[in-house]
Amino acid sequence: MTTKRRFLTNEPSHRNAYDLFEGRWASDLSEIDPSLPATGFPGFRHDSRLRQAAEHLGRDGRLDGYDVLELGPLEGAHTYQLEALGARSITAVESNSDAFLKSLIVKNMAGLNRSTFLLGDVSRYLDTPGPRYDLIVCCGILYHMLDPVELIRLAAARSDRLFIWTHYFLDQPRLPAMTVRTVTHDGLTVRLHELTYRHRALGKFLGGNQPKTRWMELPEILAALAHFGLSETTVILDDPNGPNGPAVTLAASRPGAAPPSA
Fold first, then answer.
1. Helix, strand or coil for residue 68?
2. How many Cα neighbours within 13 Å face the side chain of 134?
């Protein structure tokens, strides 16, 4: 197997690393380096979801002393925020190899020093014996899972706190046609709505690592959280008319869970 190499002869810069993925960034990196193009989603500073996680699952709106597991960091924008919010450590697991490499570029560019990025499948990581975490962040990944109930089960086994932002299924004409699948996990039966990815071969594809994905219904997300022990749930924002489909932001915790010492 041959490896394509690029040798640069110009002055070293972060821009050179950025240009390795020119036209394929999802995030607006000008938020951390104003010399870079101001395009993409403003996830480093303007996205409020990680601050909401800290407000509902942290201490005094901060994450000081927290060891955090981030599922699907994409390009490290939320990882950047987690460090800014004081997390003691962040382990970020990403299955998209391009997104993983972009995250390493961001780590270098932003000087992240409490974050470790791992390349691989999040469910396999959670299913392997390992440490417990003070918080698991599951932002923009649940609706990309072929088995989202299993992800909730595995996450609940490794943490007393889970922050979720996800799309969910709601019967409305603007969503693509989905096939209903009924699955049972540990005595919990839920309906999942299966969707086949249509643009998986494109360079800018940001979906899951399987050809298909299955969306949950919102009541069943809440039921699954409760079933696996995270029964204290707060729906921070429910947006059934979101531009890309119904979406919810929620915080879930185990009753009586004490925060870590700062």
1. strand
2. 23
Mean pLDDT across 113-119: 98
C-alpha span between 139 and 107 (Å, rounded): 19
pLDDT at 41: 92
Which of the following CATH numbers is that of domain 44-253: 3.30.420.10, 3.40.50.80, 3.90.1150.10, 3.40.50.150? 3.40.50.150
Q: Rounded to an integer, what is the distance from CA 4 to the centroid of its chain?
A: 30
Tokens encoding 73? 């960091």
- Provide the pLDDT confidence category of residue 206 given band limits of 50, 70 and 90: low
Domain ranges of the chain: 44-253
Say how far apart CA 90 and CA 131 lie, in whole Å.
12
Give the end-to-end CA distance of the chain in Å, rounded to a whole number.
48
Q: For residues 122 and 72, is the Cβ–Cβ distance under 8 A?
A: yes
pLDDT of residue 115: 98
H or E element, residue 182? strand 179-185
Residues 6+ apart with CB under 8 A from 224: 149, 152, 153, 185, 188, 190, 216
Of 202, 212, 195, residue with least CA distance to 98: 202
pLDDT tens-digit profile of 50-77? 999 999 999 999 999 999 999 999 999 9
pTM of the complete model: 0.93
